[in-house]
Request: fold
Amino acid sequence: MLQPAKTKYRKAHKGRIHGKANVGNTLAYGSYGLKSLEPERVTARQIEAARRAIARHMKRQGRIWIRIFPDVPVSRKPAEVRMGSGKGTPEFWAVRVHPGRILFEIDGVPANIARESFELAAAKLPVKTKIVTRVAA
Amino acid sequence: MRKEVGTGGARAVRRQGNVPAVIYGGKEASITISLEARAFAPVARAAGFFNHLVDIDADGKKIRVLPRDVQFDPVSDQPVHADFLRVSANTRIRVYVPVVFFDQDKSPGLKRGGALNIVQHQLLLVCAPEKIPENIRISVDGLDIGDAIHMESIKLPPDVKPVIGARADTTIASIAAPTTVQEEEPVAAAVLAEGEAVAVEGAAAAAAPGAAPAAGAAPGAAPAAAAAAKPGAPAAPVAKGGDKKK
Reply:
């Protein structure tokens, strides 16, 4: 799963996701992309599940690009612990996804395989998505 | 033509179902116009939109322009604003021209499951507005996995030149091994390392206040993980114990 090699601080604020994606909202590498339509925190586990779904459906063809990186440590308090006494321990990594953000890109596969792969991947993600295609020259 | 300018004016235009746009360039002042969104949206998304000259009728005055930019809403993908450049016959312009690859069935690399890794989807060229090529066609005939197409091997039409500074060895595309095969193994390793990763952070944080902060923070994930995994290493348990809330 994706996670930073090292971080400056162990814990991060929860944060809020405001507005639309003003970076990473266009296709940069591939011919097909999966775009988020909602703001949500996407975890490294969800990204990996989606990536596997795409890779397995594409079999041995094509290339995949992951356009998001989970760099926000998310903490949780243990079960049955009273409130207070400081912030919980970091449990997993997530990325704050803005609406309009391209999550994955793929290339080198036919359009129907690309669409099916993204449909499988979208089922693993906590956001509504749509498939975007590069304009053919 | 539209009189309202700025954010408020542009929003007013959009509320009426139009797309605000601007025409600039030449030696005249820029003028603001609005286009009908329903007619403009499919045209703006069409292939070759930025490579064709257009005549815009602005209050009865025909202006020859080249579309330079269209901003799209990142969620709805509807056009939000458009830029047009006034052109005359003797101007030379920089324009991005899309690259089209063909002969995929004659490439041994692609037949073996390799992927065409397009580095430059478009080429920045300098030419006269009337001579903008529709696209640049490049054959991948004979290319195997690991081979690449460079700028020097591309034949451009006459009177069309690459932008100054475009080096001859700039890679346009390459035949890459499929990532689906390469990635399966490292992912399995990453999953195993996941449990250690939290300890890595704890080790780094615990080491930081000590006499040698660089020793804990500087190494990458692997050495720190090894230190945390050692039963005698005190750093990780101390950090974890401090964080547990009872």
Chain A touches chain B through 46 residues (CB under 8 Å). The longest helix of chain A spans residues 44-58. Strands of chain A lie at 32-36, 40-43, 63-66, 72-76, 89-97, 102-107, 129-133. Helices of chain A lie at 44-58, 111-122.
